[in-house]
């Protein structure tokens, strides 16, 4: 009897991994029949255009107490079994992934079907900015009249961009290694040097063969073929939990192997000034999950003093910042479009033509984003062609109306996705969607400390409504501008600090594709 094995996946409720690999053994006493079936199955798999053939993989050796390396060791055999070629790079320092991706030519990038981060949300943010820094051609976010800076322009290619600067690459930073030694730090630790790397070759037999004509067709975003993914190994893994519903390396690896794909909104953050006295120097950053100022920024900044504590420093820093109970004076203007929640405002406009916020709105029924979400599908089908999606700011500037909210805030945050994690099972905004083209702006006004504690504890309870308090403003918008007369706090972009006192933020709908099938809750 001649036999061959077909590797597949199955769902097991009682298994630690929701999706697990399985084997099916087939046999026949005629060897030719077995070979014919084997070749037929191989041909069917190769004809599935959505499956990746070549991937670039960044492994964070210090994330999650060394889980990055061990998780890659666990899932690598699955990629090898699926005949997926991987160029694996163990990051050696902060900015290693950014420098590698931003320095790749378009021909080199086209050799890969996607990039995978084996780490946390911080490493993914670095990869995201490295990919988009020179390949996302769009005008700056729109700004309210009287703000002083040009936000949206038809001649966006003439605007000077100052992209985020990570540390410069060292002469040997291009070397690639397969695996490194685990370290006892989490995903927010600096990427320190590991052992001397050994080089791996870039896969040469890519399905997208580069040619001379490729130089005339540069890689731009959004597109249909390039995808990003995460093998969760960080402290919170909010992006993976919000896109798959599971924080499991094996499940994420299998979704990548099968080529599952969802579109993700990305927040484009433009810093106009680092401090009130600084000159205007626009700098662009991107965030996949969250951008926050005040409480959220101070927790990240305070935690830098206690790196020796490991992941526990976030709990300690959060407690310290909470007890300080500090508020920050600021003005926030958000774009009110026909698709946002209706507001009841004063009929009298201020001198800028924007409407001052006076009262709250009646919240509609929550629609949770799930697999095959109809809200995201409606947004994608109504978005015309990819070129129209790329210039999102031009679309949202039509018939724009700005609403101002001014005062002292404990925090100002914008959730791109739900931001689910183990401590907040519903996330910051339970009904945030992956690809509907909106941000969820959260303004937490100054309030007594016990009320603020009550608000924060509601995030830990599944099914609660932490945004129902009177001192909480929740606005679903496509863009907003933040202005502060001081530089007392910093911004938190996907867990990375960003110094800015004046920023404009817009949602770029479906800017990147992510290896996932949507949250299965």
From TrEMBL:
<dbReference type="Pfam" id="PF19280">
    <property type="entry name" value="CERK_C"/>
</dbReference>
<dbReference type="InterPro" id="IPR001206">
    <property type="entry name" value="Diacylglycerol_kinase_cat_dom"/>
</dbReference>
<dbReference type="Pfam" id="PF00781">
    <property type="entry name" value="DAGK_cat"/>
</dbReference>
<dbReference type="GO" id="GO:0043067">
    <property type="term" value="P:regulation of programmed cell death"/>
</dbReference>
<keyword id="KW-0067">ATP-binding</keyword>
<dbReference type="InterPro" id="IPR016064">
    <property type="entry name" value="NAD/diacylglycerol_kinase_sf"/>
</dbReference>
<feature type="region of interest" description="Disordered">
    <location>
        <begin position="189"/>
        <end position="211"/>
    </location>
</feature>
<dbReference type="GO" id="GO:0006672">
    <property type="term" value="P:ceramide metabolic process"/>
</dbReference>
<keyword id="KW-0808">Transferase</keyword>
<keyword id="KW-0418">Kinase</keyword>
<feature type="domain" description="DAGKc">
    <location>
        <begin position="50"/>
        <end position="273"/>
    </location>
</feature>
<feature type="compositionally biased region" description="Polar residues">
    <location>
        <begin position="191"/>
        <end position="208"/>
    </location>
</feature>
<dbReference type="GO" id="GO:0005524">
    <property type="term" value="F:ATP binding"/>
</dbReference>
<keyword id="KW-0106">Calcium</keyword>
<dbReference type="GO" id="GO:0016020">
    <property type="term" value="C:membrane"/>
</dbReference>
<dbReference type="InterPro" id="IPR045363">
    <property type="entry name" value="CERK_C"/>
</dbReference>
<dbReference type="GO" id="GO:0001729">
    <property type="term" value="F:ceramide kinase activity"/>
</dbReference>
<protein>
    <recommendedName>
        <fullName>Ceramide kinase</fullName>
        <ecNumber>2.7.1.138</ecNumber>
    </recommendedName>
</protein>
<dbReference type="InterPro" id="IPR017438">
    <property type="entry name" value="ATP-NAD_kinase_N"/>
</dbReference>
<keyword id="KW-0547">Nucleotide-binding</keyword>
<dbReference type="InterPro" id="IPR050187">
    <property type="entry name" value="Lipid_Phosphate_FormReg"/>
</dbReference>
């Amino acid at each position: 009897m001649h036999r061959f094995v077909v590797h597949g996946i199955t769902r097991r409720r009682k298994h630690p991994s929701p999706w697990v690999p399985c084997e099916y053994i087939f046999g026949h006493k005629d060897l030719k029949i077995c070979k014919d079936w084997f070749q037929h199955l191989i041909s069917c798999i190769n004809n599935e255009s959505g499956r990746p053939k070549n991937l670039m993989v960044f492994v964070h050796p210090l994330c999650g107490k060394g889980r990055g390396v061990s998780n890659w060791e666990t899932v690598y055999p699955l990629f090898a079994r699926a005949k997926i070629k991987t160029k694996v790079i163990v990051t050696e320092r902060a900015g290693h992934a950014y420098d590698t991706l931003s320095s790749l030519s378009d021909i080199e990038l086209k050799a890969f079907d996607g990039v995978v981060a084996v780490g946390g949300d911080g490493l993914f943010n670095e990869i995201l900015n490295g990919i988009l820094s020179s390949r996302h051609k769009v005008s700056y976010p729109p700004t309210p009249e009287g703000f002083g800076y040009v936000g949206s322009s038809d001649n966006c290619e003439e605007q000077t961009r100052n992209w985020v600067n990570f540390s410069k690459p060292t002469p040997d930073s291009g070397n690639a290694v397969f695996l490194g030694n685990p370290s006892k730090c989490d995903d927010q630790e600096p990427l320190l040097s590991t052992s001397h790397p050994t080089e791996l070759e870039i896969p040469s037999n890519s399905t997208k063969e580069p040619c001379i004509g490729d130089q005339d067709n540069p890689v731009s975003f959004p597109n249909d073929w390039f995808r990003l993914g995460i093998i969760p190994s960080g402290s919170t893994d909010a992006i993976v939990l919000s896109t798959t519903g599971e924080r499991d390396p094996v499940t994420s690896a299998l979704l990548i192997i099968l080529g599952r794909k969802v579109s993700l909104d990305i927040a484009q953050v433009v810093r106009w000034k680092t401090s009130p006295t600084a000159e205007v120097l626009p700098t662009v950053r991107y965030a996949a999950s969250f951008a926050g100022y005040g409480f959220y920024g101070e927790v990240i900044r305070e935690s830098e003093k206690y790196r020796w504590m490991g992941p526990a420093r976030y709990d300690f820093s959060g407690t310290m910042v909470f007890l300080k109970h500090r508020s920050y004076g600021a003005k926030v203007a958000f774009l009110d479009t026909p698709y946002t929640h209706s507001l009841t405002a004063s009929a009298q406009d201020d001198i800028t033509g924007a409407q001052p916020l006076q009262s709250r709105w009646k919240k509609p029924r929550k629609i949770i984003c799930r697999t095959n979400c109809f809200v995201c599908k409606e947004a994608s089908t109504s978005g015309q062609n990819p070129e129209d999606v790329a210039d999102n700011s031009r679309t949202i500037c039509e018939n724009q109306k700005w609403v101002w909210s001014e005062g002292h805030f404990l925090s100002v945050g914008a959730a791109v996705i739900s931001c689910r994690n183990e401590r907040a099972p519903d996330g910051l905004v339970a009904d945030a969607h992956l690809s509907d083209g909106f941000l969820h702006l959260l303004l937490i006004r100054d309030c007594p400390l016990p009320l603020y504690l009550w608000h924060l504890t509601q995030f830990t309870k599944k099914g609660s409504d932490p945004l129902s308090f009177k001192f909480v403003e929740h606005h679903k918008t496509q863009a907003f501008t933040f202005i502060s007369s001081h530089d007392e706090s910093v911004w938190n972009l996907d867990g990375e600090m960003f110094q800015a006192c004046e920023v404009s933020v817009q949602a770029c709908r479906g800017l990147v594709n992510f290896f996932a099938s949507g949250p299965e809750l």
